Amino acid sequence: MQPNESVQTGKNGQKSELAQVEAEKNNQEAAYQAIFQLDVPNAKLWDTEHPNLYTCKAIFGEDEVTETFGIRELIWNPQVGMTINGERVILRGACFHHDNGVLGACTYPEAEERKMRILKENGYNAVRSAHYPCSKALLDACDRVGMLMMDEYVDVWYIHKTKYDYAGQLADWWKQDLKDMVDKDYNHPSVIMYSTGNEVAETAQEKGIALTGDMTNYLHSLDSTRPVTCGINIFFNFLSSIGLGVYSDDKAEKTAASKPEEKKKPVGSEFYNTLACLVGDYFMKCGATLYPCDLRTKDAYANMDIAGYNYGIFRYKHDLKKYPNRLILGSETFCKDAYSFWEIAKKNKRIIGDFVWAGWDYIGEVGDGAAEYSDYKFEDPATRMTGGNGRIDLNGKPRAEAAYTRVAFERETGPFIAVDPVYQKEKLRLTGWQLTKALESWAWDGCNGETAKVEVYARAAQVELFINGKSVGKKKVKKCRANFNTTYQNGEITAVSYDENGKEINRYSLCTAGKETVLQVRPEEKTVKPEGLAFIQLQYTDNKGIWKPMEKHNIKVTVENGVLKGLGSPAPYVKGNYTDHTVATYYGEAMAVVQADGNGPVKVTVADEERFYVVEIPCE
After folding, report:
1. Picking from 17-21, 175-179, 486-490, 602-606, which range would have the lowest pLDDT averaged per residue?
2. How many C-beta neighbours within 10 Å does residue 545 have?
3. Using an 8 Å Cβ cutoff, are 265 and 301 in contact?
4. What does the DSSP assignment read for 363-409?
């Protein structure tokens, strides 16, 4: 059941021949349907702040189905941008893969809801299912939490990115797969947009441009209440059109057959990811402004409702003028561009939103976003497990980048403090996907007198930094960030933010941890349901609970009245896997996920080289 929503049928408002054929097919299927129009008295509308839900029960003979739905009005056009229930919404979005961290690729309702809740707590109101349709459990969680969803179809069309990908099946299956996606999504108020693909270079070809329109119109025939987009990497579309990085089985097989000492040449997606890491975010964004990039995207963009720009923020102002009816979505963006996006979106309704890569760290696509210090790095490439580039780490803890994003999106004013690990002396070359390696800690035991690089995030004109009450400098804030080079001293570090008139706005402090070391074993919930999951954070602190990121230990976890489903840390390099009963901490932290068996309270024993702790979680 859906509210009265706006309808868009494609370019110039005309239905294609394909859409007409599908409409006739739908009319035939309608003969087997019963349609009811019902009134909902004093209906409460659904939105991100008020995720009101209803249930509808349908009975036919002995069959009975109950469906949850929400009532909301979605409108999108150049005059209003995008509105929900008449109010403009700017999508503060996060891309994420489908895995659940140390639980692997499995879907668990509790894990999906936890993920959406944490993202929302950190300022996001939308997510993108990168790059395949998401689970029903995740959509249910989005409905309950109040998180908007851009559900995506595929990462590949008819040009292979790897040898055994979906490209060989697309021609025969795209209609059925899109129909299945719509059938799954239709009653979910959280789903506000469909995406037909991600970085599909076919959109630079005549055949691919036509397919873009066919998919858009077909989705309109199935569901006219939601817009359609597609995430296009503008610069890479141009490169692929001149033959750079295009995958072929021959190239891949030659690379695989090369000798270990020979330098392997990446192909397909690996080529573009490697290139992006080498040239950096600024080069990619500048590349997208080239005139040939416009030529290789404009026709595909005309065949969708909302133009998806992957790393194309430098084009926004130009394209708003050149294409007065185009709606623009940052379908994939860098964290450092959050402030710039937000400021231009506030002034331009045709900027629909932004989806950062990545909102939550994930297993796979290793090394794209993160450099790593040698004390947490192994030479064997097989030990690299994660992308390492989420604003939220693999275990669900917000990184410093999340604090920056909350400030950039005006969810909080700040200031917040983050410090490069003071004991680390290596200079890392960060790729565009990682804003910083700084941690929100001032507990660097044994580092007195060492150089400390401090970042402050604030919505302010200036910030001043104090160490143990003494000012160490004042800096102008640029795009919500100010950087300080100072000297580390045990004690307290404080950031004070000021407005343009020098009036204090706010202040924030971090303190050094005490000498005593405690292993905190913190279940996130007080109870667990039978067969349900308990997420247990493991963190080294002092006796007051102040985090000690320099603590390195091996932790062993055993469980009674339950099963250890996953154990790991946010470290991008892992020896073993997440099913082991031991884990090495990463900056003093790890996490265990336990499934209750329903035979009594779950008893979790956590031990390191010197101590052990026991917690019991009551089973409901």
Report:
1. 17-21
2. 11
3. no
4. BSSTTSS----GGG--S-GGGB-B----SB-TTS-B-HHHHHHHHHT
Residue 177 in tokens? 């797969």
Phi, psi of 66 (to 5 degrees): -115, 130
- Asked if the model's pLDDT at residue 594 lies above 70, the reply is yes
DSSP string, 476-518: E-BTTEEEEEEE--SSEEEEEEE-TTS-EEEEEEEE---S--E
Contact between 444 and 423 under an 8 Å Cβ cutoff? The reply is yes
CB 156 within 8 A of CB 198: no
Over the stretch 130-166, which tens digit does the pLDDT of each residue have?
A: 999 999 999 999 999 999 999 999 999 999 888 889 9
pLDDT exceeds cutoff 50 at 501: yes
Q: Does pLDDT of 8 surpass 50?
A: no
pTM of the entire predicted model: 0.92
The amino acid at 415: P
Mean pLDDT value across residues 30-40: 80
Token digits of residue 62: 């002995």
Lowest mean pLDDT: which of 272-286, 350-364, 581-595? 272-286
Centroid of chain to Cα 27? 39
CA distances to 128, 302, 583 from 174, in Å: 20, 21, 42
In total, the chain counts a number of residues equal to 620
pLDDT number for residue 283: 87
Q: How many CA atoms lie within 13 A of 483 on its CB side?
A: 7
- For 248-274, what is the mean pLDDT? 63
Amino acid at the residue 229:
T
Q: Cα–Cα distance between 45 and 129 in angstroms, integer? A: 25
> How many H-runs (helices) and E-runs (strands) does the chain carry?
13, 28
How far is 248 from 268, CA to CA, in rounded Å?
8
Gap between the Cα atoms of 177 and 166, Å rounded: 12
Q: For 473, what's the count of Cα atoms within 13 Å in the CB-facing half-sphere?
A: 13
Mention every residue, 6+ apart, whose C-beta is less than 8 A from residue 332: 95, 128, 130, 198, 199, 231, 233, 308, 310, 311, 355, 357
- Averaged pLDDT score across all residues of the chain: 91
Is 80 exceeded by the pLDDT of residue 20?
A: no
Tell me: the pLDDT tens digits for 329-339?
Answer: 999 999 999 99
> Would you tell me how many other CB atoms lie within 10 Å of the CB of residue 551?
20
Average pLDDT over residues 193-209: 96
Q: Is 465:471 a contact under the CB 8 Å cutoff?
A: yes
Strand pairing of 462-467 and 470-476?
antiparallel
The amino acid present at 602, given as its one-letter code, is: V
∠ CA(78), CA(83), CA(87), 5° rounding? 125
